[in-house]
Amino acid sequence: MSIVYDKAQKTLTLHTKNTTYQMQIDRYGFLLHLYYGKRADGCMDYLLTFYDRGFSGNPYDAGKDKTYSMDALPQEFPSLGTGDYRTPACIIKNTDRTYSSDFRYVSHSIREGKYSLKGLPAVYADDSVAQTLEVVLEDRVSKVRAVLLYGVLPEYDVITRSVKIVNASAGHISVKKLAPACLDMVSGEYDFITFYGRHAMERNYQRLPVGHGVSKIGSLRGTSSHQYNPAVILAERETTEEAGGCYAMSFVYSGGFQSEAGMDQYCQTRVLMGLCEEQFAYPLEPDEEFQAPEVILSYSSEGLGRLSQNLHRCMRAHLCRGKYKETVRPVLLNSWEAFYFDFTGDALLKLAEQAAALGIEMFVMDDGWFGNRDSELRGLGDWEVNEEKLGCTLGELSGKINAMGLKFGIWIEPEMVNEDSELYREHPDWAFVIPGRRPNRSRHQLVLDFSRKEVVDYIYEKICAVLDQGNVEYIKWDMNRSIADVYSATGDSQGRVLYDYVLGLYDFLERIVQRYPDILIEGCSGGGGRFDAGMLYYTPQIWCSDNTDAIDRLEIQYGTSFIYPVSSVGSHVSASPNHQTGRVTSMKTRGVAATAGTFGYELNLNELSDEEKEEIRGQIKEYKKHARLVQQGLYYRLTNPQSADTGAWEFVSEDGREALVQAVTIKQHANMEVSYIKPRGLRENTVYRETESGRKYNSTALMEAGIPVPVEQGEYRAYQWHFVLEDENGRK
Ligand code: GLA
Fold first, then answer.
1. Among 3.40.30.10, 3.30.470.10, 3.40.91.80, 2.60.40.1180, what is the CATH number of 646-726?
2. What is the distance in A from the centroid of ligand 1 to the CA of 607?
């Protein structure tokens, strides 16, 4: 049993293979948090301390006891109004227009399998893999209920959390703030690891101490955003890649979010992950309920590397879906950086021919194939194939591409509209525009109101009509601006629109996934602007960044790897000089950087020399040799490319018999010192053979002393070592 209720102690304990999470229903019915960490048995309520603390008030039930205060006790679901003055997980505006909630335990139930959430993405697992705990809390005065959900996946060291607010009162209420995950730590000093960024430079790793005051990250953009990723790590101060305690929180949601971390006046730490508070006030009439998205939690006592691996394994197997979730993805060529908007059907076919000749497996036609979409200025919303530009129908185009031995894929951006489009001229009220105000334009486009079902239905029909015209086996699902001017013509409650928008998006995606179960969907939002666990439920891969520069990608992919599996990271070899940075790198370096992802190409093959083409042929063969290991192996970060001279990482098979170490030099000086890269995860004191050189190595020496990176002239050189277990007994 992974979930245990101890009646005598009134504890609820969640066990995974290596971790334990415990809470207690205390004497007044508050649900207190006791412990989350390394696996342990017994009752941890001795961790609760009670002192008379000035200005930390006491619930009425405590009578004359001045030592009992919600302001100091660790809680599972802290709300505003109990005398806890820390940042709350929940604020509700009650029927009587007050903002206090006082949630107390009512009941709990334990069941096999993992709960699912209606209309929302969530980790899924059957009875043999997961258990669910549901705890019902109630405010006895307002009659508002909070139903806490915990999913436990023991083999993955993962616990998920969600919450549903039920309005059992007789009047109207609104949910003003909701964070489904809260972690209260009574002791310890922590760092808050977050991933900040911007368009074309996403998920930069930042590690700052949690101090007094609240550090907050989030997105007000209506999407998870380039600016901050909806995932955070709380790490003990001394924690490294290989050692120390750390906690991850990854929000399974693609809209606005916020995460707050801070130390309270008694030096206790609270971390929250939940919905963005701005423009949020979700109205609930009597008997209505609001379901928050879930948060994936994991704890590792063995450092950040292990924490990431827990998340990767769980997301790959229990969040991603469909035929491609655990299989090697086709090597694709995308037309965007080859042609941008400037192509004809013939040009596409010529490019596809080259692709087929080099061993590429799928051809993706990016933006520019529909309506009068010949630039950013127009066409979005008009999902009609531009047969004049293509010189044929979509069916003919995909047929010709299939005949070359290639799969065919297509780009779409369903949530958007240009003012210069038939759709906008016909339905101007379908776009987010506030009456009386002029809207914010971004990339010359407006956002369609996906909180409205008729809008979603209309675009869905249009997109299906396109997909049905040809043999489409891949979709790149784009979203190229942040949301502004939030106004839905449907009702007065504008505080629900952004959330309903995300539900509309999920409904659309779910319908596509059900109708076309074999289509591989790659998420995208100006690159990695919507790279989150919510999207992974529908799109098992996401275009990681519009920045295809191999050296910048080292940092972007480094940050991404803390949370998301390599199998989800869209990564391509593009032209040199790179289109975003102008940097010149070798084909080999670009190939090595793209290997730490889904691997593909994004350049005009017709402009390459014969030598370069030959190199690509070899590169694809090399990638295919290791693809399974890359997609399914355990991922190790060996250096931090933000500061190291060399970026290095490694894939190790789960059984430890095979490893691929890759490295790219970042800094170049005369007469350089030598960098040593230390592989990890090999079986101790055994012999591994490096397959390229045939040389044999003792694994312990390799891991302890490392392997020297050659000192050679030239910038940004790439290296790779492929080790296979040769002799279990450690002899040469
Ligand atoms: C976004 C994507 C690009 C490309 C363009 C097309 O920026 O991230 O890869 O598809 O849109 O307009």
1. 2.60.40.1180
2. 21
